[in-house]
Every structure is written in C-alpha cells, then in structure tokens.
Amino acid sequence: MTARGDSPGPAPDATAQALARGTARAVEAVGGYAGGVYLRSHTDELLLAVLMGLPGQLFRSWWRMQVNRPYPVAEAYRSGQSVHLPDAEAVMRRFPQLSAGLPFPFGSLFEPVTAGSERFGVLMVVRPATPGVPVRAADREAMRDAAAAMAAELAHLTAAGAPALWSGDPVCVPSPDPAGGARAAVDRLTQAVLSVDRQGRIRFANAAAATVLGLGRERLLGQVLWEALPWLGKRAYEDHFRAVFLSGETVHFPVLRGRHRPREWLSVDLYPGSGGVTVLIGAAEQPDYPPESPAQPNPNVGSVADRASALYRPVALAIALTEAVTARQVSAVVTDELLPAFGGRQLAIYMLDERHLYLAWETGFPKGFLDRFDGVSLEAELPGVETLTSGRPMFFESMEKLAAAYPGIPLDAHVGARAFLPLIASGRPVGSCILGFDAPRGFSPEERTVLTALAGLIAQALERAKRYDNEAARARGLQSALLPHRLPVREHVDTVARYLPGSVGMDVGGDWYDVIETDDGLLALVIGDVQGHGVAAAATMGQLRSAVRAFALSGSSPQEVASGTNRLLIDLDPGQFASCCYVLLDPVSGHARAVRAGHPQPLMRHPDGRTEVLDLAGGVVLGIDPKASYPVTELRLATGSVLVLYTDGLVERPGTDIDVGVERLRAALAATGPAPLTEMADRLIGDAGSSADRPDDIALLLASRTGGDADNGEP
Question: Residue 385's closest CA among 310, 666, 377?
Fold first, then answer.
C-alpha cells in the first residue's frame, strides 16, 4: 500500500481551508471520528475534496463518485435531501452496493451543501454505529447548520472569483497527535505498541518497538504504518485496516514476516478510538490456516488456497459484480476474481431456462467437452443438476471420488478436484457453477462457507443480468424510435449523423442529435447529452429533443431555445441534467448563431483544410439553474467548410484530460482531407467505434456548406 493521498503537498487554498474547518466542526458536533466533503467537478462526477480522520489511500476507490450512482453521497446531491444511516442494517437496506464495498458496522450522515439554487456538493460525517437507534434531531440540526455555514463560505469564495469546482486528489487533513507522549507503563511491555493517527501515520512507538520490529523510533515516527512495515502492506491485510478505521471494533490477525527462512509469525491487534488506532505487535505461533501459506486440511489430498485472500474475496467479488450488467460480464468477473482466489483452472456457468440448464460461460475445459451437457433437463443425474435441485453445494476432492459418486459420467481429466455450486437468488433457482482444479485438493469448512456465499452473490448478479437484457431491449427500441430516422435534405447544406451506443454497461444512453427546418428557411443543428444511461435517460432525451424542436419551429431565438429547454428540464426532473449545443444556420448566407450549455466546443474545418476548435460562449448545463442565461455567438460557414458537433463520448478516455481527446479529434478532422461528408463521419467515429470497452455512447453531427451567396473570405 502507498499513501499518495496522505502525503503532505502544497498549502491548501482558501476553498480547501474552508472545507476543512467546516468538516472539523461537523465531526465534533455529531460525535464523529471522520468526515469529508464532496464537491462538484467539471464533469458529472462528485470529487472528494477534503478527507479528515481516515487514510486517503485506503479509500481511494471512493474519491470519485458519479452523480447517478446508487450511493448516499450521490443521492444527497441529486435529491438535495439529507441521508442518515445510523448502522450497517440501514446501509444494507438502502445502499447494498456501499454495504458490499464497506461491510463494516459504522454510522454515516450526508448533508447537501447548497445555497439557494446553487448545489456545491455534500458534507459527510462518519461516526460509531447506533444499531436500532435513529439519528437524533439535534444531530440532524447540527449537520444542517454545518452544511449551511459551509455553503455560505463557498458562496462567498465563488463571488470573490474562486468557483467551488474541484479537480484532482482530496486534501487529507491531518489529525492532532493522539499519542500524548510515551508512557512508562507502555514502555515496560514486551510487545511493540504503536499509536497511529487516522491518516495511518505512526505518532508514538514504545521502547519494545525497536526490538520487535527492528526499527528505532526515529525510523517509525511520522511514517505511514504499512510503508514503515512493508510486510503489513499486502493486499490480504488491507481489509483489516479498513475495518478498524471504519467500524470502531478491535481486529486481530496473524502476519508472516520475512521472505526467506527462517520466517517469523507475529500477531497484530488493532484497537481503534476516536483519535486513532493503537497497534500491538508481538510474537505468535503459526496458525492452523495462515495467510499466504499453503494449508492442508486433508494431508492426503494436496493444498488449498490462501485463506486470508479467500476470505477477502466476497468483498472484492461483490464490488466487481456491481459493475457487471450482462451475463457475460458477470462470468468474466467470476473468472477474474474467483478462480485466482482458490487456485482454480476451470469454470463453467449454466443458466436455468424453463426446466433445462444451458451453458452460459466456460473457460479452461477441453474444447467441446461441455457441449454434451448443454441443455440438459433437471431430471438428469448430473452433479451440476443435483446441486441446483437440492440447493446443496457438492465438493469432490479428487476425480476418483467424482467418478465413484456418478458412475459413467464423462470426465475431462483423470486428476483434479471439482466443486459444484448452486446459483440461487432470493430462493429462486438461477443456475449452477462448476469450479475445476488441476490437482486433488481439500476444501476446508471455511472455504466451503466462502464458496457458498460467493455462489449467492453470483446468482444475484446473474438474475440482475436477466433483467438488464429485458430493460436494454426496451431502451434500444425507445431510443431508436426517438432519434431521427433521416435528416432533411436542403439546398446549400449537407448533413450527416452517426450514433454509437456504449459497449460497457447499459448500451443505450441520452445522447441525441437533430436537424430542424424552420418556417423562415433556416436550419437548426442540435446535439445533446443527457446524464446517465438506460430507459430513463432515453426517455428524457426524447422529451428534450421534442422541446428543442418545438421551440425552434415556433421561431424562438437560440437563446430562447436554450433557456426554455433548461426550465422545462428542471420542471420535468429536478435531479436530471443535460448538455446541449444549438446552432441556427442560414444555408444561403452561411451566417449562424450558436448557444452552448455545458457541451464540448464544436470543431470547424475550413475550405483550405485548416481546422480549429471554436470558442463559443457558454452557460451551465441544462437542468441546474432556472435563471441561467445562454449567450449567443455569431459565426459563419464559408462554402466548403464543415461544422462538427459531437458528444463527449467521442473525446473522453478514462484517465486522460478531455482537452487531449478534443485535440486528437481536431487532428483526425484535419487528416481527413476533402473527403465526402459520409466518409469523413465514418473516419472520425471509426477509432471509437472499434473500442471494446467504450464506457459512453457517442453522437456525431456534421454539416457542410455546399453553396449559396458568394463568399468573401473568412469572417
């Protein structure tokens, strides 16, 4: 583990200082031990701006939050309402994805930070769980007051020219030194005693630490625990540290120190408190099933996988399965997470349809071997069928035992082991899962329990995948009906459009384009992007496209079109927002007026081949501010020029600045040469269309002026 997010950096700016002060007040007011603030960013993500009382690196997965995700931070921001979760049961009931990622008992409070219609972000406080006891009215009021004070400071800073938009990593606020100096009583202990603050840094070490750990105090103090002691930084132990920093409960686990023999077993005890964690490290005997050591519950049958890693897998698998929406994606996640955890080499997943099992996924088996089992009925005497009909997992420590239990069953190998797991979700049979191992092996009671629990997670994910297929089919039909079936053919102007659905997750979204002929002979070019994916985003897209078309046909100016559509979206769905670019073009003169609502800047290819990113004045995205204004930019399309409108899916890549993608698109436009418009569109969208992991859908609209009034050079 590293602690990049915890390392001291440049002095925080005024915004970070204001957030840190407000967070500290909120944490103290409601009896918390950690807190933070998420702020909106230049994208549709909320970014963790300040984190206090927790090691930033351990919680890196939660630094960025999509506003449409099913997490409490996102819900508080979208709805503008408080979210109070007093205990783990409340988290499991309302936000199972968060519970899967952080399965520890803790309480949490989330308060939107707003000033009037301005939504800045969300204030968060983490505190001890209060099982069965709701959040007190006084604590609710304290959170509202803290958020209001924070919003007032942010509004003041915004007015002074420091917009409350965050980018980059969070500022991890250090906690006060909890050690309080060395204690003579602690120094008499033979165990190493360390006091670690809530950023994971060692603030105190007793005298025995030098003997037990081999490092003096000067080498320990101020260092991140798992960096000072690298043998504590292995992935198998990360979950222990997450648990102690969040749950407030003590944690005990064994650690094997050293890479070469003789190696030493140590016991690690973690005792958390509001100010930090006390760490005790001492000598220990080798455990029955030590982490990172082969264990043999049956010495006649070979070895089993790393117990600590295996016990960690339910959490890792649950997190990964929340992102998988198709049966194929679920199966790929199981292959990546489950097989390595237990040392497996073969995997097969069968799905139940009517009263037959059909092969949905396989890896590692001889080619064609499983074909004979595809479509078997539930009356067949096969372990993959019996495990589902009985609801009991079946474990065979060797192929000989499998053959003895099912005489005459075809075998793909004579050496190995097999596990057959029933896939049952909420009492309903979904299918069965087969795990294969190249060598005989035993299955400890703990492994059997873990594998059975994992089978339940897989079954739930596969059941969701079935629902996804149905929803995706409906959404595809809806989106196909809502997008233009053809573009108008006009003298002096050619238009071409392309649309590509995302290839990761829901394959339909809210991107749209349109070309509208107005009564006064003008041509409106429109492109937009509704936040999110699925039926809801497609439906909102259809409403916005209809609204823009209605405003355009009524003779509204570009500014009136944007303002009217903005107010309509706020009335339709206050939690939804969209970007849009609207260009009203006179095909004869080439004169155009354009407005932009949070949308990427269009591109222009001039007749001489020169390309540029246009600089259109813009307003905020639609759906945020009912009083938002959208300034108009005048421009002109010369004969032979091409205007390129697109959505961000064409230029955004994970981990890369969007400006890099825009420049890449501009260079591609310049390289197309004087090609036909259809060929130009195909080239521009070609690279993105070939990507197998495209996270967002793409819309592209090209308009080329082919004639009209005599041109007198560039504007």
Answer: 377
List Cα–Cα distances, 260 to 232, 257, 264, 303, in angstroms: 16, 9, 10, 21
CB 194 within 8 A of CB 270: no
Which segments of 11-117 are extended strands (E)?
34-40, 45-52, 64-66, 83-85, 107-115
Residue whose tokens read 């209605």? 550
Q: In what order do the strands lie in the sheet with 264-272?
A: 202-205, 192-197, 276-283, 264-272, 251-257
Q: Cβ of 265: how many Cβ atoms within 10 Å?
A: 16
196 HSE (CA, 13 A, CB side): 29
Equal CATH topology for 4-173 and 310-474: yes
10-residue mean pLDDT series, the chain (715 residues): 38 76 92 94 90 91 89 92 89 78 88 92 94 91 95 88 85 63 70 91 90 87 90 80 85 76 79 90 66 37 38 63 74 82 88 88 90 90 91 92 92 92 86 92 82 83 75 61 76 90 58 90 93 73 88 93 93 84 95 95 94 93 92 94 93 83 92 87 74 69 82 46
Q: How far apart are CA 638 and CA 713, in angstroms?
A: 8
Q: Which helix (H) or strand (E) holds 583?
A: strand 578-585
User: What values do phi and psi take at 248, rounded to 5?
Assistant: 80, 10
Please tell me the distance from the alpha carbon of residue 714 to that of residue 712, in angstroms, as a whole number: 7
Q: For residue 557, what are its two tokens?
A: 């100016």
Domain 4-173 in CATH 3.40.50.720: no
pTM of the model: 0.43
CATH number at 310-474: 3.30.450.40
Distance CA 330, CA 321 (A): 6
Contacts 24+ apart (CB under 8 A), 684-690: 684/644, 684/646, 684/650, 685/498, 685/500, 685/650, 688/500, 688/649, 688/650, 689/500
Between strands 346-353 and 428-437, the pairing is antiparallel
Class of domain 484-705: alpha beta
Per-residue pLDDT, 508: 59
Among candidate residues 533, 655, 649, the one with its CA nearest the CA of residue 599: 649
Angle at 378 between CA 373 and CA 384, to 5 degrees: 50
- Domain boundaries defined on the chain: 4-173, 184-283, 310-474, 484-705
Q: Which CATH architecture has domain 184-283?
A: 2-Layer Sandwich (3.30)
Find all residues with CB under 8 Å of 56, minimum gap 6, and list them: 3, 4, 5, 6, 63, 169, 170, 172, 199
Q: What is the token pair recorded at 568?
A: 């309509």
3-state DSSP of 103-167: CCCCEEEEEEEEECCEEEEEEEEEECCCCCCCCCHHHHHHHHHHHHHHHHHHHHHHHCCCCCCCC
Q: How far is CA 96 from CA 72, 86, 173, 251, in A?
A: 11, 15, 29, 24
Please check whether residue 442 is in contact with residue 401, taking contact to mean a CB–CB distance below 8 angstroms: no
3-class DSSP assignment, residue 638:
coil
Q: Six-digit token pair at 470?
A: 């149905």
